[in-house]
């Protein structure tokens, strides 16, 4: 028994000795390791990720090993750049008078007594009040070119720009594009602050961005968020327009409210990556979803508006949908439907436009477009965005899946008229004339209430060809009262888009002689 106890005590003593030595060695090792903590990197007050070294112990990661997501993102410089280059836009649309015909059921009864002739059709003037609105814009050149939304300035008779330093300018419209909801303005300035135009293709989902604008007339407001999605199409009915809208938005949770429209979406480096355009809300105010037009689309639109006054839009000539949406639709109609396309992503070609680019090149219904010039296409909004970067006449390599086999077809893109010619701007310059609003003295001497006078007629002017003379004062155009050059331009654009493509004008010469003319538009 005593021998057993001696052996037990000896074992305990040996274990204690070994443990003590091990503890001392461990303490010494850890003391040496962590006594150099001042030299170990601590990023933004936090320890970086750990890693194993060759001896198997966990060590603090070096600065070079630190994931970017652990780095502190300083947005102050980006906000400063954005505020300097974002402007406040105030627009005014003058009231107008429209002549409206209506039927008076009592006219036939009393016309013989009051000498109004036969028939019950009467005319009356409808006066619309002056309207004002506001938005934001982004200076993209030091000499005064400003990008904003089409819906901010469309129909405006007067556009006032206020810079961040409170300088004020009058702006003129260089061009409008309803399909992308972009507009280009010009002010007479120099050495203006600008934003560097970044590449929106390089944006990553989860990346920090700033929305800069003037919501609710609060000048130079900055909100922050992340990129929530790319190539996003807004729900049907959320935006009205021509029916040919290009929708491939950057979605962000940075707050975008009324007045932010036309403002800047800026990345953390202070580069312009989008033009704030819309919010998705059932209340009319921000509820977590904002949308911006990517700079990849903006750059093409701005270049065309400056050079041609109109966007030279290329069309591939198909109608279709996301392949995934097509598959879901077919399965909803028939649960037994099952077809293997050889791919899960792409754009399903449902129809080909007659004489369109795709049909002439050899695409077929049922093809699935998966790439354009080796750039992957997963959905219709991506296809729209990519094609928007090209011009009519450009040749692109279209990757498709047909019968589960990949195929490449070269397609020469066309414009909306089915050719590759330059599309002219739908503005008054096409009439080959110069116009000005009549003065108050002219109104008094000629007994007029409104009118726009032709001050110059080119020899090849369509107006001259139809017999219109110089100094003619246009008072009505297509039955709309004309009080300003902007009024005339609106009616002209509407006539260009109509099936008749005819502009009817009525007015007076300074001599008092009246005249009415019909001008055929191209």
Please describe what this structure looks like:
It is a single chain. It contains eleven helices and 31 strands. It has 522 residues and is an alpha+beta fold. The protein folds into four domains: 2-70, no CATH class; 73-95 and 130-311, Thrombin, subunit H (Beta Barrel), CATH 2.40.10.120; 318-412, PDZ domain (Pdz3 Domain); 428-520, PDZ domain (Pdz3 Domain). A hairpin with a 5-residue loop joins strand 30 (502-508) and strand 31.
The total count of helices amounts to: 11
Helix % is: 10-25%
Mean pLDDT across the residues is 82
| Cross-sheet strand order for the largest sheet | 11-10-5-8-9-13-12
Determine Rg (CA atoms, Å). Answer: 34 Å
CATH architecture label name of the largest domain:
Beta Barrel
Number of domains: 4
Q: Could you give the distance between the termini? A: 120 Å
Secondary structure tally: strands: 31
Broad structural category:
alpha+beta
Short description:
By secondary structure, the protein is of the alpha+beta class.
Highlighted features:
522 residues; alpha+beta; Thrombin, subunit H; Pdz3 Domain; 4 domains; 7-stranded antiparallel sheet; 6-stranded antiparallel beta barrel; 31 strands; globular
Strand-helix topology:
Layout: H1 2-34, E1 42-43, E2 46-47, E3 50-52, E4 58-60, H2 76-85, E5 86-93, E6 97-103, H3 107-114, E7 121-127, E8 131-139, E9 145-148, H4 150-153, E10 158-162, E11 168-170, E12 172-177, E13 182-186, E14 208-213, E15 221-232, E16 249-252, E17 264-267, E18 272-279, E19 290-294, H5 295-308, E20 318-322, H6 323-333, E21 347-352, H7 357-361, E22 368-372, E23 375-376, H8 380-388, E24 395-402, E25 405-412, E26 433-437, H9 440-446, E27 452-457, H10 462-465, E28 473-477, E29 480-481, H11 485-497, E30 502-508, E31 514-520
Antiparallel strand pairs: 1-2, 3-4, 5-8, 5-10, 6-7, 8-9, 9-13, 10-11, 12-13, 14-15, 14-17, 15-16, 16-19, 17-18, 18-19, 20-21, 21-22, 22-23, 22-24, 24-25, 26-27, 27-28, 28-29, 28-30, 30-31
């Amino acid at each position: 028994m005593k021998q057993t106890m001696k052996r037990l005590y000896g074992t305990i003593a040996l274990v204690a000795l070994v443990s003590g030595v091990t503890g001392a060695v461990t303490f010494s090792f850890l003391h040496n390791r962590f006594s150099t903590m001042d030299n170990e990197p601590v990023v933004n007050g936090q320890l970086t990720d750990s890693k194993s070294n060759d001896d198997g112990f966990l060590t603090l990661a070096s600065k070079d090993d630190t994931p970017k997501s652990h780095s502190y993102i300083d947005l102050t410089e980006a906000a400063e750049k954005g505020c300097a280059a974002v402007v406040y836009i105030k627009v005014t649309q003058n009231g107008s008078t429209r002549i409206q015909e209506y039927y008076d059921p009592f006219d036939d009864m009393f016309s013989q007594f009051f000498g109004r002739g036969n028939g019950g059709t009467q005319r009356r003037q409808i006066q619309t009040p002056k309207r004002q609105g506001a938005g934001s814009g982004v200076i993209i050149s030091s000499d005064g070119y400003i990008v904003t939304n089409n819906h901010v300035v469309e129909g405006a008779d007067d556009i006032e720009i206020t810079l961040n330093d409170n300088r004020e300018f009058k702006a003129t419209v260089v061009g409008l594009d309803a399909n992308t909801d972009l507009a280009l303005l010009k002010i007479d300035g120099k050495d203006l602050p600008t934003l560097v135009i970044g590449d929106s293709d390089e944006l990553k989902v989860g990346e920090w961005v700033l929305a800069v604008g003037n919501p609710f007339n609060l000048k130079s407001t900055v909100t922050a968020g992340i990129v929530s999605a790319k190539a996003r199409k807004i729900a049907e009915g959320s935006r009205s327009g021509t029916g040919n809208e290009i929708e491939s938005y950057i979605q962000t949770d940075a707050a975008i409210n009324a007045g932010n429209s036309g403002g800047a979406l800026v990345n953390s480096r202070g580069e312009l990556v989008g033009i704030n355009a819309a919010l998705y809300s059932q209340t009319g105010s921000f509820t977590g979803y904002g949308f911006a037009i990517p700079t990849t689309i903006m750059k093409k639109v701005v270049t065309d508006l400056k050079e041609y006054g109109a966007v030279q839009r290329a069309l591939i000539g198909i109608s279709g949908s996301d392949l995934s949406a097509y598959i879901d639709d077919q399965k909803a109609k028939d649960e037994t439907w099952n077809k293997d396309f050889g791919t899960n992503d792409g754009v399903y070609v449902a129809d080909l436009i007659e004489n369109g680019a795709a049909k002439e090149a050899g695409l077929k219904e049922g093809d699935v477009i998966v790439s354009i010039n080796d750039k992957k296409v997963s959905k219709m909004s991506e296809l729209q965005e990519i094609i928007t970067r090209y011009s009519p006449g450009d040749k692109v390599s279209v990757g498709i899946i047909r019968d589960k086999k990949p195929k490449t077809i070269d397609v020469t893109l066309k414009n909306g008229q089915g050719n590759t010619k330059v599309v002219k701007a739908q503005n008054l310059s096409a009439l080959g004339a110069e116009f000005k609003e009549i003065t108050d003295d002219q109104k008094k001497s000629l007994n007029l209430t409104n009118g726009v006078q032709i001050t110059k007629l080119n020899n090849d002017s369509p107006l001259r060809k139809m017999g219109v003379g110089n100094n003619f004062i246009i008072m009505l155009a297509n039955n709309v009262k004309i009080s300003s050059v902007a009024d005339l331009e609106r009616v002209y654009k509407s006539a260009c888009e109509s099936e008749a493509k005819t502009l009817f004008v009525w007015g007076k010469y300074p001599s008092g002689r009246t005249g009415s003319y019909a001008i055929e538009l191209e």
